Give the backbone structure.
Amino acid sequence: MSHNGAAATRASAESAAAAPTPEEQQHLIARLDDAIIRLIRQRNAECARLDRVRQSLGQPRVELSRENSMLQRYRDELGAHGTDLGLLLLKMSRT
């Protein structure tokens, strides 16, 4: 076997050894889901707090320009489905 062929075989074996198993990958995804859920709950709590502050100051509960800016950010960062996610987050924070 040539030097290049041996190096390629070694690299392939190292890559396979470093790759997570499907179970490990599923565990990582589950941990990420847990973090996302925790952050959404935290976001909802902060939105509720902001609503109370605005109401106590006699301000409107909803600031459309801020919401539009948030939706644009999600669209820019996550693509077309980012807008859907942003809208869902806004809806969740209002319930």
Q: What stands out?
A: Residues 52 and 61 are 8 Å apart (CA to CA). The mean pLDDT is 91. The longest helix spans residues 22-56.
